[in-house]
Amino acid sequence: MTNEPPRASSRPGPRPRPRTTRRGRLVLIATAVTAVAAAVLVGIWATGEPPAGKPKTVPLLIPEGRRASQVYDSVDRLLHVPRGTTAKAAATARLPLPGAAKRNPEGYLFPATYPVGTDTTPGELLAHMVDTARQRFGADHVTEGARRNGVTVYQTVTIASIVQAEAATAADMAKVARVVHNRLARDMPLQMDSTLNYALNRSTLDTTHSDLRTETPYNTYASKGLPPTPIGNPGQQATDAAINPARGDWLYFVTVAPGDTRFTADYAEHRRNVEEFNANRSAAEN
């Protein structure tokens, strides 16, 4: 959700700011699949080496929007290695990342289902993810779309990661992308809850005024421009939205009810939409 600074908030006190994300639902799916896959892999190890020439694999699902830290945990569980092993591999492995990433793979662990064998190492698996991302993001239509929008490919990935976190549908993704581009063009702070939540290492619907005072370059209420890195790993739909945003003059949006996200360029209208959201939420809590 986008909003004005705390002084112009449409809520009294530290009321939460609404936002929409698919991350919660997808994390549940990924956790279930990874848990099953890990159990299968442990079973393979227990029975000895697979037949020559026929290595056994299990799938690792990386859903759209997962953060690098979440991907590392999934790989650790699947490979049955101590927690933190994959994070260390990410810091030391020579991953095929673009220079703009400064060796940080956030945004380049492309969401997909990856086959994992009994001899797969964390570094090899991360390299496969990054190589997949480089191929997807290096496609002509992505580089041309980034150029058309006046941003770099790395900035496009960052925009796509915000779109992934903030929108629930393909149509909303294209509109959220337009809000991001419109605010950048006007030199307005993005004011996205998802970037602040990334800095605070959480996924939540509630962002308080106290949170908005957090000193971090990911606080897009206080800092203009894009955050320094992607805030998750976007999928194809979010990437397509980032390079082909919908046409519109929107600067604000809020999900008033499930399936009802309102976009507007008028702040007064946005405040009315936020008030409707608050009324809906209060009614659901009573």
Walk me through the structure.
With 286 residues, this protein is mainly α. The chain has two domains: 6-22 and 151-285, no CATH class; 23-137, no CATH class. 47% of the residues lie in helices and 7% in strands. It contains ten helices and four strands. Helix 1 (23-46) packs parallel to helix 2, helix 2 crosses helix 3 and helix 5 (140-148) runs parallel beside helix 9. The chain is globular and about 60 Å long.
Task: Give the SSE map.
Layout: H1 23-46, E1 57-61, H2 68-79, H3 85-92, E2 113-117, H4 122-137, H5 140-148, H6 153-166, H7 170-185, H8 193-199, H9 236-243, E3 252-257, E4 260-264, H10 267-285
Antiparallel strand pairs: 1-2, 3-4
Helix pairs in contact: 1-2, 2-3, 5-9, 6-7, 6-9, 7-9
The strand line-up of the biggest sheet is 1-2
What Rg do the Cα atoms give?
20 Å
Rough outline: globular
Q: Can you tell me the number of structural domains? A: 2
Q: Residue-averaged pLDDT, rounded?
A: 85
How many strands appear in the DSSP assignment? 4
Element order: H for helix, E for strand: HEHHEHHHHHHEEH
Q: Classify the secondary structure makeup into a structural class.
A: mainly alpha
The helicity comes to 40-55%
Largest sheet: 2 strands, antiparallel
Spans of 5+ residues with little confidence (pLDDT < 50)? 4-48
Number of helices: 10
Separation of the first and last Cα atoms: 24 Å
Quaternary:
single chain
Percent in strands = 5-15%
